[in-house]
Amino acid sequence: MASDMPLVQLPQRGERINVPLVQSRSEDQRLVTSARQTDKIDADDLVALANQLNSARQLVKGRACDRLKQIADQMEQLHMAARAVLEDAQRDEHLHNVPCNMEKQPGRIYHLYQKQGSMNKYFSMLAPNEWGYQEKKEEYLGSYRLEYDRSWTPVGEMDRKDEEVARLQQLLQREGPVALRGNPNF
Fold this sequence. Notes:
Shape: elongated
Largest sheet: 4 strands, antiparallel
Order of helices and strands: HHEEHHEEH
Distance between the termini: 52 Å
Strand content: 5-15%
């Protein structure tokens, strides 16, 4: 099989080859420094190199410290969030153990009372102003809504909770589950 391309001939051992190089520039425009120039060691160059290394170390340390501080701040926020979750769980457990002579239904508001002169607490559907007795206002401890996940929300926090749920519902409606988008790949 013949080819129109010329064959490359490799030089024989010990044979010198002339290779064209890029035309040299003047001394002040050199791209490559000659070996004679690189062999020279100047004290100022060593000081500059040491300063550059020290500066790089300081930057690396500073960046690492900043990142560690950010992680520590996140850990503190997670710690506070975990503490709030545990406190809410403890409150919810306590409220679930309060006697109630009716079936507790999610979405309803229950009013917590403590009998005067007693440690006994109980839930009622009646708010303090609906009783008609002054004593009930004195026994009143607070009002809570039973959520569908069986957690309790104090009445004072209901608006915030409702806004949070509405935002999550909007997000779910807008984004939707990934599995429901388009055609499934079965």
